[in-house]
Amino acid sequence: MIYYLVFCSLLIPVNLWAAITPHLHSDLSMQILHATSTLILLPLLVSLWTQRKRLNHFISFILSTFLSVMVVINTWIAFMGMGVRNGWIDHLFLALAATSVEAYFLCMPIPAAEKLEQAEGIDAA
Known about the structure:
Layout: H1 2-20, H2 27-50, H3 57-80, H4 87-107, H5 112-124
């Protein structure tokens, strides 16, 4: 999980840089960046789906809708390449999506069973 979050956090400055300098990269590098960004967003969507009963429904709905749109757009860009009008906006949203992945996994509530185990571990010490 830590490696995933570190890799995800690296996508934030990369996407911000791509938004600032949209014409300084090659078509292949853009396709790789968008494909990688899509792969980073998929585990969060899976986690949102598997934990949907335990999470705040409104926040889960907003986040999953946003991430689903980003996955569709990024998959399309990964296959089609550059030439998308206002593509820099997509990079801003990708940076926001990567930030939301970080926030979700770092602030995710601990299940009650794990809290109990942690409390028992503290009591035993």
